[in-house]
Amino acid sequence: MSGGKQVSFTTEGHDGQQHHADLLFLEQRFHEACMIALQSIEGRQAAIDVRLQSVVKQREDLHLDREELDREAETLDLQQRDLDEKLASLASQRATVASAKPKQCRDWFCCAKPDRGSEFVQDQTIARVDAVSTLKVYGAGSEDVNGSYIKTQDCNGDTYFFKTDEGPSGKALYFSDGQKYGMPAAWYLADNYRGLGIYQCLHEQEETLPFAGWEIFDVEDFSNPGYYPPPLVEVES
Asked: What are the backbone dihedrals phi and psi of residue 218, each rounded to the nearest 5 degrees, phi first?
């Protein structure tokens, strides 16, 4: 009897020890799993921090780049205005020099002379269309508009100039009062007669044509904007 009871106590003690060992093992595994998860979270957090710092740096760089681009745009705008003024001044000086030579002072110059009355205007950079047969366009950034233009008329008797080497259906220089399209009156250098404008020169009179003051024409649906610089125009002899 006593021997049987002793065996029973020994078995129960062994089971308790095994249960305790199992708990320790599970606790150790749980602790290891927690450590691995924590390390993973810390690693991901570090990666996120690095990425956030990179994004912040990129945003700061973009802000600085934008400010620099804005400054460059302002500088280029000022330079363009200065060049436009110099080109207009150059055209005026050329016209003045030409008009100062008696043998070359032809009736297409619009010089102020009281005895000729309304046939002339005071601005020497403007020519009377009825006294001009051929024009020279030069200096344009869109080089395909540069060249000689000859005067002609459409079926309605309206005068325009077409590019000599392209013919009447090619590039053209014409006047439009702009009323039909809600735009100001101007002379246009265009893809073709009454076509998409490339350059324009604001001007109120169809009877006279400006040599300088041209600018890039950029109006949606009505233009094929040219490249800078805009052209100069002169009478071709």
From this structure: -140, 85
